[in-house]
What does this fold into?
Amino acid sequence: MFIKANFSVFVFSAFLVALTTAANAATITIPTTDAPRTIVMTGEAEVKAEPDQAVVSGGAVTQSRTASDAVAANSEIMSRVFDSIQKMGIARKAIATYGFSLEPQYPPRNDKDPQPHTIIGYEVSNGITITLDDVTRAGAVLDALIDAGANQSAGVTFSIRNPQPLLDQARAEAGKDALNRAQIYARSVGAALGPVRSIREGYGGIAASNSIESVVVTARRVATPIEAGQQSITATVTIEWAVK
It folds into this structure.
């Protein structure tokens, strides 16, 4: 009789556990509030304009057995470059030097010779940039730079001095693009746009126009033709609206 009672209690307990598990599996959580209906759309825009500023760059590299001779040779070239540029009527404030360095030179490494390398000479490099508000003069200035003795890679880059108004224009057009897309999608599903919930600006930028990366100096050269082309200013914005 004692064994039978225990067996009945065990069966009843197992029944309660199974019933509780089934009840938990069937539990459904009902939210107390409805989730807001929204639409998120990204707009993009591009504005193109001609560059109104050019930067011509170049430089000189000289080598000699002594540091003083290498510096003197480099200074001579850079002095000719400065004189040539100023003779073109370019203001001194538009001319700047950069990247001056003096580096010792060593013989080629020989793994069979464990002795420390000795200095066999020195190399001096110095760069120059000329900022032009008249981009049509870039080719002539580049030629003058090379003719004066600049033997380091020379190049021209173009830019827009004040891109802010163009960037603001691109932003406004990107906002209109996002709004137009959102309205099209909302109408297609029988909805309407409500108030704006958030605005996040994406990554925009200024794409470089055509530029002369480098010019090879040869014994006989002709005038360097350079065209500024156009630059693209882009803007991206992501906007979230409530949906009615």
